[in-house]
D-3-phosphoglycerate dehydrogenase
Amino acid sequence: MSKVLVSDPIDQAGVDILSQVAQVDQRPGLSPEELVSVIGDYDGLMIRSGTQVTAEVIAAASKLKIIGRAGVGVDNVDVPAATQRGVLVVNSPEGNTIAAAEHALAMMLSLSRHVPQAHAGMRVGKWDRKKYVGNELYKKTLGVVGLGKIGSHVARVARAMGMEVIAYDPFIAADRAQQMQVRLTELDELFRTADYVTLHIPRTKDTENLVNAELLRTMKPTARIVNCARGGVVDEAAIAEAINGGVIAGAGLDVYASEPLAEDSPLRAVERGLVLTPHLGASTEEAQENVAIDVAEQIRDVLLGLPARSA
Ligand code: NAD
Ligand code: MLT
């Protein structure tokens, strides 16, 4: 019987599917060394974002046929190394789209109404009504960077809330944007004019530190920025400085250049205008079930000798 290692927590629905065709070992929290020492026993590997599948892991994976990433980003897998060894890498491109989009919208609303800060005040007996006067999203301009699956859903909901939506995405056709009632712009115009900017792009060499001190200085002092995409796309020290210095009004961040976020990160010291969450974009029960089923089915099919789509 085939063997599958599940090295991050995944929804039981995925484990049930894998169990139809394989012995499933759930071992979240393995150290990199432990992973290298056990991976040789397995035909399949199922992960979320916690496991780093390095070239060293792949070199030790003598029986491995498939790596399934229960989520979108395969940036924690050395895909070229896997491909070279003939190991398929599959993901779930759509299973957590709605969850991530709704998290970005939650960030925009919490930021605008200071929900986390007001709640923290209530917990210690305060009743700060004046301190937390907020802003409405209605009639404000939202700039979406990356009008793909998640960016498009955010754009649709924002339109329904009465926002004007502009977007920067060099790979999207103008008529597709037009259908969504979104106007495509250049990046500099988007940052200069938007009241809210939300990022929905992958981390690539072109997007690394895309949002830096220079770009932040072009934003309105009332503007807020949300990153529920990938860490490293924004310069975290520059964001902290921009909020502390009044260059922008605030930011909502879910993802970080290095995760977990360092305890001494300058972001943790910002007192007002910042909402931080620990990479929760895909963390809904619905999304976790979707991605687990999607990826487990692909692993099952490959172990049965059927074709699968690759990431
Ligand atoms: P997608 O591929 O559907 O969309 C990405 C869009 O970015 C595409 O339309 C592409 O044309 C565009 N793009 C690429 N390079 C660009 C650039 N330099 N400038 C502007 N646009 C550019 O992907 P998606 O499913 O919408 O996911 C978006 C991001 O969100 C990914 O990085 C994904 O890993 C991340 N994500 C995070 C969470 C989370 O938990 N926070 C959950 C799901 C997805
Ligand atoms: C993804 O790429 O799917 C998200 O970052 C969510 C996750 O890591 O589970």
